[in-house]
Structures are given as structure tokens and as C-alpha cells.
Amino acid sequence: VVVKRLVIVFLVMFAFSVYSEDEKEVVK
Question: What are the structural domain ranges in the chain?
Fold first, then answer.
């Protein structure tokens, strides 16, 4: 259960970083 939760968190963080890639460019 813990491992599955960690995988879900990892996927969410990865998806968020990809989704906010454009925002990072704007900040720069």
C-alpha cells in the first residue's frame, strides 16, 4: 500500500512538472 501511494505521488509530481513547464519558462 505504501509503495503504491509513493508511485502515485511520483506520477502526480512528474505530471505536474510537465504541465507547469510553460510556467517555468515564463518565470525565467
Answer: 1-28
